[in-house]
Amino acid sequence: MITVVRTIADLRATVAKWRKIGDSIGLVPTMGALHDGHISLVTRSRAENKRTIATLFVNPTQFGPKEDLSAYPRDEAADLAMLQNAKVDALYAPSVAEMYPQGFGTTVAVTGLTEYLDGPHRPGHFAGVATVVSKLLLQAAPDRAYFGEKDFQQLQVIRRLSADLDIPVRIVGVPTVRAADNLALSSRNRYLTKEERARAATLPRTLSEIAERLRREPDAVAKHVAWGHRQLEEAGFRKIDYVDVCDEATLQPVTRVASPSRVLAAAWLGRTRLIDNWKI
């Protein structure tokens, strides 16, 4: 039976009880609206740890003033049922007041890795992510924490903050879970209309093709990125925030592929912003 805790004190008491008997602990942070991608993180955690904690917290500090905080899908009962079925040991579902009490005034900001890609398009987003993840890691004190590779920039930011702040946790990236047409699973996919959902598969198809072309022509980044832009525009993506090829470790854009790299993109179908990436 899953244990539900809503305060830092109760979370730490639960963790202390497990630590006392020598159990290892995995943490799966989520904002709810769970799908099979989240469950893949749980599955990995359960394979590598004696106990697994999932978190459910829609973090207001990572949403911009014109973003979808109020509309973000919330269904704790459905999420709890999924986590129960996946055999999660505990759900940590704090309130906003628990996470950000009156007088809270600290922000964690990671530089360098946030300079490109989503950074310029979502001001303040990564500071919100870095702050809440730092808090979750310190509150739960897990051995390992699990994040999906779909949000690859976020994953690298979290790896950097945990290393820089000497938080004793191993950050584990888990491969993206995709639908039959290769669209990356996302809580925001439910915003798509039926017609938009049919067109959305153009995004992973385009990124995989760019990656394949760059394996053959590593010096032709600009040419193949421009081709990718055209493909998305023709498929009806109304706004393309970026299609970039970046070094995996630094997330700096590259003009030729000479080290482990990824092609990353963010683009809009209707009111839905889709992100994805493909390893080269």
What does this protein structure show overall?
39% of the residues lie in helices and 19% in strands. It is α/β, with parallel strands linked by helices and 280 residues long. The protein has two domains: 172 residues, Rossmann fold (3-Layer(aba) Sandwich); 93 residues, Pantoate-beta-alanine ligase, C-terminal domain (Pantoate--beta-alanine Ligase, Chain: A,domain 2, 2-Layer Sandwich). The strands form two sheets. A six-stranded parallel beta sheet has the order 1-4-3-2-5-6, sandwiched between helices. Strand 5, helix 7 and strand 6 form a beta-alpha-beta unit. The longest helix has 16 residues. The termini are far apart. The mean pLDDT is 97.
Reported by name, the CATH topology of the largest domain is Rossmann fold
Kindly name the structural category.
alpha/beta
Distance between the termini: 42 Å
Name given to the CATH architecture of the largest domain: 3-Layer(aba) Sandwich
CATH superfamily of the largest domain: HUPs
Report the uncertain regions. none
Write the layout of secondary structure elements.
Blueprint: E1 3-5, H1 8-20, E2 25-30, H2 36-48, E3 51-56, H3 76-85, E4 90-92, H4 96-99, H5 118-121, H6 125-140, E5 144-148, H7 152-164, E6 170-174, H8 194-200, H9 202-216, H10 221-234, E7 239-247, E8 261-269, E9 272-279
Parallel strand pairs: 1-4, 2-3, 2-5, 3-4, 5-6
Antiparallel strand pairs: 7-8, 8-9
Helix pairs in contact: 6-7, 9-10
